[in-house]
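>> received
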Amino acid sequence: MAFDITNPYFRTKVLTASAEELRLMLIEGCIRFLKEGREALERRDFEKIYEHFTNARNILVELTTSLRRDVDAELCERLEGIYTYVLRLTIDGTFDKNLAKVDEAIHLMEYDRETWVLLMEKLAGEKAAASANAEYTPISVQG
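>> returned
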C-alpha cells in the first residue's frame, strides 16, 4: 500500500494498526524508499535520490527513537546500532554514489523485516494459545 496520507484506506490502516503493525509499516516504508533511492541513483536522478533517501533516513531516525529501552535495554542498544549503521550506509551511499552500500542497507532492512514478521507471528501464536487456555474450564467430577 502506498504511503499516501490523503488515501482514506491508508489512513484507516494506520489509525487502526497495533504498535507492532506500525513498526512493520515503518520498516517496509524504509525498504521501499531505499529501493526507490537506489533506482534513482542508477538513473542519476538527483532530485529523486534526495527525496527517497531523505524519507528512508527519516524513518530510520523514527525507528531508532521509538525503541522501548525500558522493556529491553540491551536489545534496543543492538537495534540502535543496526539502524545507525544502515543510516551511515545510506548517507555514504548517497554521497559516494555507491550502489553496494545502498544494497547492504536494503539487505539489512529486509532482514530486520523478516525478523520482525517472525516475532509478530510468534506473539500472535502465544496470544492465541493463552486465549484458548483461558477459555478452557475443566469440569470437576465429584463423586
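>> The chain has five helices and no strands.
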